[in-house]
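Homework help board

Subject: predicted structure for assignment chain

Our instructor gave us this sequence and asked us to write out the predicted structure in token form, then describe one feature. I got the tokens but I'm not sure how to describe them. Can anyone check?
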Amino acid sequence: MKKTFAKIYFKLNRWKYNEFPDIKKAVVLMAPHTSFWDFVLGKLYFNLYNYKPQILIKKEAFWGPLGYFLKKWGGIPVDRGKRNGIADMLTKRIKEAKDRFYLVITPEGTRKKTKNWKKGFIKIAKEADVPVIVGFIDKKTKTLGVIGLLDMQGTDMEIMERLKKHYIGITGLRKNKFETGYE
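My token output:
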């Protein structure tokens, strides 16, 4: 049912998508993150494959009925103002998962325009020994999906530079809220 709804939604709204790779466990980066609708589109995309990803979301979003649904849909509340061992907890969850496990992270860490992307995904992926899938949502072409796997060799800075270059030319749902530093 969810898969059918997602296909109908994308077709009616003229969104195109590409295939998700057949990988059992991964950290999935989704960018640009400029609107709450990024979450909705990303969730619909995963519904195409009947996957229920775990998604890092700021803790402030988990209030009232919305908080209930965010948790039901795989949301993990994150207190962005504290160092609380979340990377270690997520690494452990990935390692212990018996079936498919996809941890979705927005590398910008905010919907605001920023050049300072978060590097926690590097630690999580390396310690859990899983690949990093580079996902995207491009409003300009009305396309979403996967760009490919991120080369995780080198320093954190080198990895981040390679990641940002994947997003050159991609437009967020709110186009003035996204920056890679290469425009």
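Reply (TA_rk): Your tokens look well-formed. For the description, you could write something like this. The chain is about 35% helix and 20% strand. That's the kind of observation they're looking for.
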